[in-house]
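Folds abound. Consider this:
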Amino acid sequence: MNDLHVSNLTSKNRLKQVEEQFRTWELVGGKGVSGKAARGTRFLTISREYGCAGFRIGDALTEVLNSDLPVGQPKWTVYDRKLVDEVCHCHCLSRVLVESLDEQRKYPFSDYITGLFTGEPSTIQIFKKCAESIFQLASNGRVILIGRASALITSKLTGGLHVRIIAPLDWRIKQVAAFENIGLLEDARKRVEKMDKERGKYARDFLGKNLKDPANYDLMLNQQTLGVEGVVKLILQAMAVKQAK
């Protein structure tokens, strides 16, 4: 599950959006976002605790951000699981290999042995290719990158607004139980704690950073108290502040 709140957009429609954005980038000569827009927020990263919204927030933001764009300009597009598709497409990697990064630690010697006998790239090599794609997407601009430690990977790139969505554990447990049809709250708790741990391990193992560290973000927003609408409004306000600087 990439997002507790599933958007109305289908995977097919999302892929169409990505293809449209790539075509527009090609038409403008691969220059990405320029002018005044380049001086403000060119890309967004959204990190979230398990059980918090990602795609709902991203989709709401793109609807607002794209409403006033001139015809022919690259539109804002949300990347999450389709980012994995792009990585696999660009680097000829197996989807299973890329997704397995969330569940693996970096053991250089065992990676070497695996590569020696199977010809598969090491987890570190795969991560580097993922990071390369994330960085390139952010550089082109008008992308909302959800998860995959995108805030950490793009931290040195100018023009980014980095947001983390949080909520109390008990609230997230109830959200996950309801969405995933988990009958016992204790089982939902185990699920939430497991996913939080795996996401934290991904950032720690490959980047040596703590995903929960507030210093990694421009905004930390509580979804329980603000709701999706409130979170979206505050992100847009933060973008306006950066645009005015």
In short: The CA atoms of residues 86 and 92 lie 10 Å apart. The chain has one domain: 11-93+132-244. Strands lie at 43-48, 77-79, 143-146, 160-166, 219-222. Confidence is low (pLDDT under 50) at residues 1-8.
